Amino acid sequence: MANLTMKILREHLIQGELSRGREIKIRIDQTLTQDSTGTMVYLQLEALGIRKIKTALSVAYIDHNTLQTGFENADDHRFIQSAARKYGLYFSKAGGGICHQVHLERFAVPGTSLLGSDSHTPTGGAMGALAMGAGGLDVAVAMATGTYDMKVPGVMAVNLKGKLPAWVGGKDVILKILSDLSVKGGVGYILEYRGEGLGSLSLTDRATIANMGAELGATSSIFPSDEVTLAYLLRQGRGGDYRPLAADEGAEYDAEITIDLDGLEPLVALPHSPDRVARVKDHPLKVDQVAIGSCTNSSYGDLMMVAKILKGKRVHPDVSLVISPGSAGVLRALSDSGALSDLIGAGARILESACGPCIGMGQAPPSGGISLRTFNRNFKGRSGTLDAEVYLLGPAAAAVSAVTGRLTDPRTLGEMPRVAYPEVFAGGEEYLIPPVESSEPVTLIMGVNIKPFPRGGPLEDTLVKTVLLKVGDHITTDDIMPSTAALLPFRSNIPRLSEYCFKSQCPDFAARASAMAGGFVVGGENYGQGSSREHAALVPLHLGVRAVIARSYARIHRSNLINSGIVPLEFVNPEDYQALGEGDELEMTGLRQALEAGGIIEVTNLSRREKLACRFTGSPRETRTLLLGGTINRLRSEKDENL
Ligand code: MIC
Ligand code: SF4
Q: pTM surpassing 0.85?
């Protein structure tokens, strides 16, 4: 009696035993990268020395940094395009849309495995694919070998009871789950949706839910593939990709929650965390900005609903409304249906189909501004304005609030408009360049901004270093390595980025790290949640960070640390977090042997003359990786047979 997750894992299993917590090797059918993690991925692919990718399909998207405020981005895009040509990938040009939305439209297939260098890759779970986010190096290795090493997660059933009421959408469902489970409630799980409520969720409602499973810390989220999936694929002209898929009757799960859809209301996440959830109607705040888009809510259905609400109305004089359609296909369909005119007629600012404001690429709110966003993350400072207050909500509530100038419950509008879909969407491939077979060798085109990435060396047996920084719980990778319009152009230039490491937590972190010749970072629970950017490991590596000691880690960041050769240690006794302070000098001896034996690492706090115990719990592969100083060193030394 297998659940859907285990069925797909079984079909893809290459090595290992499918039992929870064990490490397995699976076949990866598809990969995706985006530009801000992609440059590093293709540098790593180059370092792995392969000729062609081994996946059935891989796509390199350009969607995060499309502003091209200087030559740097344009150079990066050209580099990625040359890598796509060299290794045999699809290339999705700037303007084509946000990777997750385009992938759903053009490429996602039920029952396949997808690995992406972006934490919201699980969006593909809406299609019944096993779609996971990972660090860039893991995605490079997946392309090079067609495989991925992962820990078998637990599977949590999410039973959907009843049906979605009017004016309530996918965003409200996932916000409700976030308020019940918190930003670490999904850690170690794949969330598998089932039950009578599924039929009332459109495929893009499902995509919104699967997308924001990332905010729960979940490994992925997955929906069955059913008539809703088929209808979506037919509209995309891809009916042939359909395959019905569901869990067996009576399938077993490791955990279970139930959501009563009938009882849901329009919800909003308050600043500065996606799990601080409240009812829209309880917060009638005055707003300065409304931003509609991102990979969470930028589909045709979402934006048509917005257009219907705005038709014949005006955006409030004190509000700036910005709309980024999720893909060129969506933008074109809005234009063909006349809805684009309704949006412009209401005074909306139409942006390029890209991540845009979601990753701080423009449209920063005014000082102390209130911004309502249909996005998935509202971490402090991510909008580009440190003292802005960002609220996350669904597109209908966002649209009506843009008109009233206050956070407004869309149910006040009365009857909900109905959105009609074209039978088949026109186009959608104009921005896609398919792989070509070429007999000529292709040269990678590197701009001057592309610098070599740092590589770790074999782990020292004794480390005597200083605690450079001590941070609290739920530190995000945005905190570790911020991503603003000014910084995004330097994603392929680690030395330059390093000046901004931990900037919001400790303005002189980089100077401190270089004065101390590196050291340790101490963290709380769920260290490294959020974005998959491996820069949050590569930059500390460049600054000499040798180990992090935290209460617990977010999955992708923990792997990124190991991949780059930084040891992610945990406190044996979580209370010992209190016993470490910034500036303390710590000594770790017999590190290599302790790691090999999977045992306890004794840490002497030389400054306080105290001892405490830490441990590294990882698979034999992860231990070998750390001993050798990172994944590239390990693959090279093992001469991986798949390479
Ligand atoms: C994000 O939403 O934070 C990003 C930008 O898409 C990241 C990737 C990145 O930092 O490049 C993600 O979620 O993985
Ligand atoms: Fe882009 Fe935002 Fe989605 Fe990340 S969360 S992929 S930045 S739209």
A: yes
